Every structure is written in C-alpha cells, then in structure tokens.
DNA sequence: ACTCATATTGAACATTGTTCAAATTAACGC
DNA sequence: GCGTTAATTTGAACAATGTTCAATATGAGT
C-alpha cells in the first residue's frame, strides 16, 4: 500500500501545496484571463513564497503549462463521455460537448491555444500529443461512417473537422468579435455539421 | 494643396517617426512574435526615446493595435483583389488568398486575433468592424449562389465559413500543433470547401 | 535530542511598461 | 536674425512583475 500514512510529512505538504497553487492559478486564468495571472498573487493566495512556486514548477510558464495540461485532460474526459451508439449522433455530440466545455471554460481554452512560450522555446510535446488524442476521438465514428476511407484520409478529415469547429466556436465566443449568443452558436455548429456531413455523403440531402 | 512643403517641419518629423516606429514594431512582431516586442527595442531602432513612443501612441497597446489595424487593411486589400466573375471560384479564391496571406504573415495575424488588452479594456471597435468588413467580402458571391436566402442567413453563413476556414488555417499553421505543410494545407482547405459547398447544394455531388 | 539533508523563504535583482519634470526645439512676431 | 513662447522630446526615475539564491527553517533518521 502507498496510502497517505506512508508518505513523509514533507511530501504531503509539497503535494498539497502543488495542488493549491494549481487550483488558484486555474481560478485566476478562468475568471480574469491569462494576462492577469501574477506569481505574487498566486503565492499569496496559496500562502507561500514566490520561491516555492519556482521550486515546484521551475518557472512561471511551468504553472501555466500544468494548468493547460489539466484543461486538455478534463476536455478529453468530457469528450470521451459522448455516447457512441450512433456515429452521426456521436459527431454532433462531440461538437456540442466541445462547445459547452469551451463556453464554460473559455479563458482556460484560450490559455491552451494562445499561450506562447518565452523566447522561442518549443511548446511541450506531451500537451500537443494530448490535444491530438482529444480530437482523435472523432476517428472511430468517422471510420464507421466512411468504411472505405484509409487511415490518412480519416486523420486528415478529423483534423479538418476539429479545426473548423474550433474556429467557429472560438471566434463565436470571442466577445470582442461580436459574440454570438450560446444558443445561436449551437445552432450554427449544428448547421455547419449538417452541411458538411451532407457534402461528405454521410447525411442524405433533404 | 496640402503637400509636404506646407507641413510644418515639426509635423513632418512626427509623421516620419510614427511611420518608422510602426515599421519596426511590425518587423519585430512578424519575425519574432508579439511576445518579443519591447518598447525599448522599438525606441532604439527608431532612434528616439521611449517617451516619444508614448507621446505618439498613448501606451504600448496603442502601437500593437495600430499594427493590427494595418494588418486587417492589408488583408482586406488582398481579399478584395480576388476575381469575382464566378462566385464559386471567388469563394475558393478568398479562402486560398487568406491562406497565402496567413502563411506569409502568421505572427501578424496571431497578433490580430490573440492579443488581449491590459486589464479588461475592450478591444477597439474600429478594428472589429474592419474584420467584419473583411469577411463580408463573402456576401456577394454567397448571395449570387443562394438567391433565395435572406440577409441574416447569408451573414450567418459567411461568418461560419470564415470562422471554419480561419480555424483550419490557424491551427494548420501552428507549428506546435504539428504544422501541416502549406501545400497540403491548401488541399485541405479546398477539400473542406468542396464538401461544405456540396452540402449547401451549391456544388453538385460528383 | 542532535545532526544533516532538504525545502522554504523573501530580499535583492532583472526586465520591461509607464510617467513627468527638465531640456530641447520649432514656430511666430518683431 | 533674435527673443519669446508653446509644444515636443528626452531619459532618468518609478512601478509592476518574473527570477534567483544565500540565509533560514524544517522534517527525517539515528
């Protein structure tokens, strides 16, 4: 067993604090946006010094990247929960779930997609991989709907669909670009899928 | 006449410097990204003090916003140059021109779409309006192709198409998301339009 | 309880946006 | 031209914020 009693006190506190820092950072990003995230604010709210934040995460980007990592994970869980009996419904479900998640956590998603590293350090591979995995959830329904298409075609198509839906949603929720009301946005996404799936021959023309 | 001889010397210098500051800021954003833009670098390269940058643009956001404004203008000019004889070709042309422009000026476009103001000041209305005007260039061809659709439907559709294409291109060019080679991206955009326009009944099923 | 390795601290530093009193400069009337 | 004046320009000082590291405190092992 490896329960909490076995953990040295030192590590317990470390772990607890790590979680607290992340919780606070996430809350600030979610409510006030990435640009409002400040080391000192996080340290103060977590009841520790700025040095501790650095000990735990290396640099401030480390905090942001960890929050982003957890955002993709949460998104993946939500997307994986979409019912998969009917592949067409599944595709609509994935898009609508993405919309719902984006609407709930707009600033967290923006942090994921818009954050640029200091200098020109590369974005961590594992996060990229997680994003890819998330939209690979479209593969199975697409394979079922287009049995004769090869893997490359499926991969390309899922990437296209994901990117297109992402564009519609992210620009649609951008307040500054004359935000579309959420209900209307859902309709917009559905109509987009109607047209696109029809064009792919998946839905029949009405 | 209002030629350069009539301008007081003071204003001439002011105008020249304003242009120079913008040119330098644009060059830095374009080559090293928005995050690498620093007041002192700009001032030094323009041969003036940091104070002058502030006198001219109010604050540093002012410089960025002015560069962004000029980016939309340049984009609009390019898009407006797409031939309009055939509405279907025009739509493809608009998308491909957007792709070409985005590929050439990726960092400038990211600055336009991703820059967030300090605090929560609103993004200037005139820039939003310019972006709207840019993608309103899709209205005429869509009206010709869908004569029975009302204005609201056209506006919504053009917004959807623009957002979708923007998503495909911006994620496709994102190095960190496993960048798609430009040639492949063009194919991807074309295939997207094929399917979507077919689904809308604009292209006939092959 | 003592020792030692480790974690934590926060003051000091580095970088970068912002301000403003002082210096400079151009415009104008003579 | 020259002095006066209003406007502009300057850059040192300030403010905000990311980062470091020597000194301190703390938990683990005996």
Describe what this molecule looks like in 3D.
The structure is a homodimer of 206-residue chains. In chain A, helix 9 packs antiparallel against helix 10. In chain A, 71% of the residues lie in helices and 0% in strands. The first copy, chain A, folds into two domains: 58 residues, Homeodomain-like (Arc Repressor Mutant, subunit A); 134 residues, Tetracycline Repressor, domain 2 (Orthogonal Bundle), CATH 1.10.357.10. With 206 residues, chain A is mostly helical. The relative contact order of chain A is 0.09. The mean pLDDT of chain A is 92. Chains A and B meet through helix 7, helix 9 and helix 10 of A and helix 7, helix 9 and helix 10 of B. The structure holds a DNA duplex (30 and 30 nucleotides).
Descriptive labels:
homodimer, mainly alpha, Arc Repressor Mutant, subunit A, Tetracycline Repressor, domain 2, 10 helices, 0% strand
* CATH structural architecture of the largest domain in chain A: Orthogonal Bundle
Calculate the terminal CA-CA distance of chain A, rounded to whole Å: 60 Å
Q: Element order, helices and strands of chain A?
A: HHHHHHHHHH
Supply the CATH class of the largest domain in chain A.
Mainly Alpha
Strand content of chain A: under 5%
Number of helices of chain A: 10
> Share of helix among residues of chain A?
over 70%
Oligomerization state of this entry?
homodimer
Shape estimate of chain A: elongated
The domain tally of chain A reads: 2
Number of strands of chain A: 0
CATH topology of the largest domain in chain A: Tetracycline Repressor, domain 2
Calculate the mean pLDDT score of chain A and round it.
92
Query: Residue ranges of chain A: pLDDT <50 for 5 or more in a row?
Result: none
The interface involving the most residues is between: A-B, 45 and 45 residues
CATH superfamily of the largest domain in chain A: Tetracycline Repressor, domain 2
Main sheet properties of chain A: none
| Helix-strand category of chain A | mainly alpha
């Amino acid at each position: 067993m490896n329960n909490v009693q076995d953990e040295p006190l030192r590590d317990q506190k470390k772990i607890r604090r790590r979680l607290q820092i992340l919780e606070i950072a996430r809350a600030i990003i979610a409510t006030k946006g990435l640009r409002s995230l400040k080391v000192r604010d996080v340290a103060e709210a977590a009841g520790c010094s700025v040095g501790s934040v650095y000990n735990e995460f290396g640099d401030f980007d480390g905090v942001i990247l960890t929050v982003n990592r957890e955002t993709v994970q949460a998104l993946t869980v939500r997307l994986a929960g979409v019912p998969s009996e009917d592949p067409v419904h599944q595709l609509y479900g994935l898009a609508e779930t993405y919309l719902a998640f984006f609407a709930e956590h707009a600033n967290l998603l923006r942090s994921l997609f818009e954050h640029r590293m200091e200098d020109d350090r590369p974005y961590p591979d594992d996060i990229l991989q997680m994003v890819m995995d998330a939209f690979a959830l479209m593969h199975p329904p697409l394979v079922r709907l287009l049995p004769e298409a090869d893997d490359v075609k499926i991969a390309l198509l899922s990437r296209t669909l994901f990117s297109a839906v992402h564009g519609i949603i992210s620009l649609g929720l951008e307040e500054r670009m004359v935000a579309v009301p959420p209900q209307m946005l859902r309709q917009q996404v559905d109509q987009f899928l109607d047209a696109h799936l029809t064009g792919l021959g998946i839905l029949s023309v009405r």
